[in-house]
Amino acid sequence: MRYITEENLKVADSEVFEIIEAELKRQTNHLEMIASENFTSPAVMQAMGSVFTNKYAEGYPYKRYYGGCEQADKVEQLAIDRACKIFGCKFANVQPHSGSQANGAVYAALLKAGDKILGMDLSHGGHLTHGSKPSFSGQNYSAFYYGVELDGRINYDKVAEIAKIVQPKIIVCGASAYAREIDFKRFREIADSVNAILFADIAHIAGLVAAGEHQSPFPHAHVVTTTTHKTLRGPRGGMVMTDDEEIAKKINSAIFPGLQGGPLVHVIAAKAVAFKEILDPKWKDYAKQVKANAKVLGEVLVKRGYDIVSGGTDNHLVLVSFLNKPFSGKDADAALGDAGITVNKNTVPGETRSPFVTSGIRIGSPALTARGMKEKEFEFIANKICDVLDNIEDKELHKKINKELEELASNFVIYNSSTY
Ligand code: DSN
């Protein structure tokens, strides 16, 4: 038995089987527009469900602490080589179980407790692990922040001024809710001006970078992390990359034995499969379409009177602000959910509400693009989003829109071989 098939699970545990079936139905019938989610290919999932889940392989390829790692060595080396080819870098560590673990490894490798880091404010689009107080990054290190200006964009001169005052050991660039291109070259100049290490977290934009549809963090950043499941469309996991051999050695030790034990070899195998898909020339078409779809989404929202942070998008997401509306991000998230559109409530620059309520929503194009949707469908969906928001209390309308969107969704399977 090579893989766990549907039949095995149905017989062994009908309760879990039914929950998974219901989740498949939810993912199929709803329109998935959470900017950080995507649909992996069946091949990626098959590798994830493979016998590699049985294997312990502490250490790194050809330097393990356990026997029987011959095949684990091959698959991890393949994943590393493909990652380096995609991003044009010299070293990659594909073992982090998540993006947060990858980021934790960077700090553990390059900082001492209490050292200063400078990252993007969470409420301006940054990430918890970029120094936010509730996260280990804000608790173990002395964290300072930069944000966006009133126009919703990073002001690099201002970042340089803050860096000069703070004198951080690491500057973190990259974001979770920032719709504009990140200028890694300029960030490196800022880092050099204060002798800081430049750390780029490209989790959100990695799929675009891989296609040349966003400026690459290489050769500018000293160290780069990403998740593998967002725009990269791979399995859930993380990765660290660098061109610097000394940093690579420190990162390897920080991940194992520093932060993690046995690597998830089945997930590493799935990362290798996803990386092969990304190396296919078709990947560029996917990444271009992700951007084109997000652009249409932003344009319709603006035309219909909604306030998009920074006025539009250069990447895969739009951040909608309701600071000037009588309803919250939480209200919008719930109403859109009733209409069959899955988004997430999100804080916005100038936030006045708590992170559980928020004044915005983040909407992304990667998952629906993976289903094969193009500008025409995004224009239609964007108008439906506006119809829901214009009539946020009208539950009957939300139900009606839900039916229409379910019909649209039924024309786009979630495992669309033409998009990988
Ligand atoms: N949770 C991810 C996101 O939605 O952007 C970040 O870790």
Automatic annotation (TrEMBL):
Similarity comment text for this entry: Belongs to the SHMT family.
Residue span(s) of domain Serine hydroxymethyltransferase-like: 10-384
GO molecular function terms listed in the Swiss-Prot or TrEMBL record: glycine hydroxymethyltransferase activity; methyltransferase activity; pyridoxal phosphate binding
Residues bearing the modification N6-(pyridoxal phosphate)lysine: K230
Subunit architecture: Homodimer.
Keywords from the UniProt entry: Amino-acid biosynthesis, Cytoplasm, Methyltransferase, One-carbon metabolism, Pyridoxal phosphate, Transferase
Protein name: Serine hydroxymethyltransferase
A single BP term in Gene Ontology: methylation
Catalytic activity of the protein: (6R)-5,10-methylene-5,6,7,8-tetrahydrofolate + glycine + H2O = (6S)-5,6,7,8-tetrahydrofolate + L-serine
Annotated positions binding (6S)-5,6,7,8-tetrahydrofolate: L122, G126, H127, L128, E245, S354, P355, F356
Cofactor: pyridoxal 5'-phosphate
Source organism phylogeny: Bacteria, Pseudomonadati, Campylobacterota, Epsilonproteobacteria, Campylobacterales
Subcellular location: Cytoplasm
GO cellular component: cytosol
Documented EC number(s): 2.1.2.1
PROSITE patterns noted in UniProt: SHMT
Site positions for Plays an important role in substrate specificity: H229
Functional note: Catalyzes the reversible interconversion of serine and glycine with tetrahydrofolate (THF) serving as the one-carbon carrier. This reaction serves as the major source of one-carbon groups required for the biosynthesis of purines, thymidylate, methionine, and other important biomolecules. Also exhibits THF-independent aldolase activity toward beta-hydroxyamino acids, producing glycine and aldehydes, via a retro-aldol mechanism.
Pathway entry: One-carbon metabolism; tetrahydrofolate interconversion; Amino-acid biosynthesis; glycine biosynthesis; glycine from L-serine: step 1/1
Main location: cytoplasm
InterPro entries: PyrdxlP-dep_Trfase (IPR015424), PyrdxlP-dep_Trfase_major (IPR015421), PyrdxlP-dep_Trfase_small (IPR015422), Ser_HO-MeTrfase (IPR001085), Ser_HO-MeTrfase-like (IPR049943), Ser_HO-MeTrfase_PLP_BS (IPR019798), SHMT-like_dom (IPR039429)
